[in-house]
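=== Structure Prediction Worksheet ===
Name of assembly: unnamed complex
Input type: mixed (protein and possibly other molecules)
Chain count: two
Listed entries:
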Amino acid sequence: MPAERGRLSVRKTYKLYIGGDFPRSESGRSYPAVDGDGEVVARVARASRKDLREAVRAARSAFPGWSGKTPYNRGQVLYRVAELMEGRRAQFVEEVRRAGATDPEGGVDAAIDRWVWYAGWADKIHHILGTVNPVAAPYFNFTIPEPTGVVGIVAPPDAPLLGLVSRMAPAVISGNCAVVLASERWPLPAVTLAEVLATSDVPGGVVNILTGLTAELVPWLAGHMDVNAIDVTGVPEDQRPEVERLAAENVKRLVRAEDGETDWLGDRAQSPYTVTSFMEMKTVWHPMGA
Amino acid sequence: MPERERDELERRKAAASSALAERTPFAYASAPESSEIVRIEDRYGLFIGGEFVEPKSGRWFGTLNPATEEVLSEVAEAGPEDVDLAVTTARAAWEESWRDLPGRERAKYMYRIARQLQERSREFAVLETIDGGKPIKESRDVDVPLAAAHFFYYAGWADKLDYAFPGRLPRPIGVAGQVIPWNFPLLMAAWKLAPALATGNTVVLKPAETTPLTALLLAEVIQEADLPPGVVNIVTGAGETGSNVVTHEAVDKVAFTGSTDVGKIIQRAVAGTGKHLTLELGGKAANIVFEDAALDQAVEGIVNGIYFNQGHVCCAGSRLFVQESVFEPVLERLKERLATLRVGDPLDKNTDVGAINSKQQLRKIEELVESGVEEGAEIYQPACDLPARGYWFRPTLFTGVAQSHRIAREEIFGPVLSVLTFRTPEEALEKANNTPYGLSAGVWTEKGSRILWMTSRLRAGVIWANTFNRFDPSSPFGGYKESGFGREGGLHGLEPYLEFEEDGRAG
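=== Predicted Assembly ===
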């Protein structure tokens, strides 16, 4: 890149985001990320199986703390992510533009607004999908949604920021911790998002973002015994059967955006039911008596 | 231990030993339920398109009374062609009638089924007990009333689905392929059929090979209810038949209740097909007793948790965690209570523990119990006479169990309890959650805040506080982790049978 205004620019190293840290891949590998015109924008870390396992470990460690926070607190923490995204708006717009987006401003605005929208669900989802159940016996019986645990998210390859936010925010808002595979071709917005998360109040390990080759990493994620659910929205069609077979190893929940929900700018791309698709329903019984 | 409690313990010990000496404190006269009410055919065909038809496979298999080993009837074994016919019939019924029938009409068919189940409840209870070995008091008081209640509950949803999921427009999926287990044969059929029909799907149901008869009697009820032919099809057979059902390309939705091993096979089999899937699998539930619990009630709950239905219960409280300070009194009372359980003829109205469902299951229980002894746990079984014929297993408990023992990790699916101890709530929680399963759990304490603290941290789908093994059609049931996904029962039980169009009011 040429020097601007007579000054040589300081280039950024794009690294992984694991447990709140920014390590390079333990494998020492990297790969070139290109923009819409095919020009190399940067080299990014190419995560390995071992990096992925580290990310799952970090996510599992963060789960008790994050899921144990009050929903009000999680909502505020995630709202702050939107605040910081707003501050980096120009950078996101530039990165999304270089990823070939037709309306980069619109996409970034929608991504920020989507964070805000999901942040507000943190303390409301229980109203909508929790129930008190009128059992035919003297018991108080209720059902509440709870986070499922560690969630793997394969980011939609063609919408590196808005698609990622649309799948990640609903997973973490309820208390899940995520291991995210960034868009392989256009990873830069995901790395910038990692920097936003690292400087917000989201505890380390709640979100872990790996850049690398999707086809290489997805099977390790799908087969990992300590991952409770996997969002396969970004998995290429031809790899889905393999991924879904591997997911059976520990009865993983398979989550995916349905047709119509992948029009990322559309209203259907956000839903409280996406939040609950990453949740379990817990039912509790207690006798009633004097 | 306070002196009063020690005296009480001594008294109980004395009573228990004298009880053992005299076998039981009371002699129970037998009180058999008559089986006159049940008429079992020599042979049952497959229920396809509203009629019983001969299997194209040409194969039949026998179903036994596990309490007598006598063959009750011959049942058709559905081969691939039979399954194909059932699925095609279900598909046609969906497209031609059921899909577009107004919900209020679907509801009325289901109410008819519920009412007929109630009307013929005695017949169903006796048949369930004869075919499966469970005590008549359980089939009579639990299985059959709950099955009827499920149809009644979900019937009422059929014309109210638009109110169930705010912001979403529900529509049926298509043909549901459902495979059910042998532990609650009729009840599991009801759990599967009722939500599927209420939401406008048609069904191919595969009952377990050892317990097909009540599902086939239900087919008769369905005929009498004039349900449009093909809306419910029942294909009998073993694992291969089930596999043909779940992998059939015209099946849109698969629902399975059974072991985690088979659940994983099914999840692999439907991978990449886009079929909707719910799994209700195994469990190894922790039943946790704190020192401040009402111990007599807790002991009843422990007994109900593990010896109910011979322990053939996926959510059975098979791991008992007792706080160390009350280990001795709990164990004494538990042993005393075990000595009073009546094991034997399932048709006897006094019987608490009936027959083991099959020879195969009996072998599995025996094998795991042997492993418990070999791995060094201490076994306790009350003295009781077992009938000469049939499959039986004494109510059993193990003490000195380590977390690593097979009997503490593997689902036994029999009347076998592993007793472990803990000191603090944190330790109880850590041990309870230390399993790949997550179906159910129990907590016994008189302290309300501790109940809520525990229930919010136990990783299981159903938690009973100061009770155990309660079920209700309005109460969602299903597991965390390797106990499966999806819920059956309640509002949440509708979702697995629906697809949705969001109406765009979000934003």
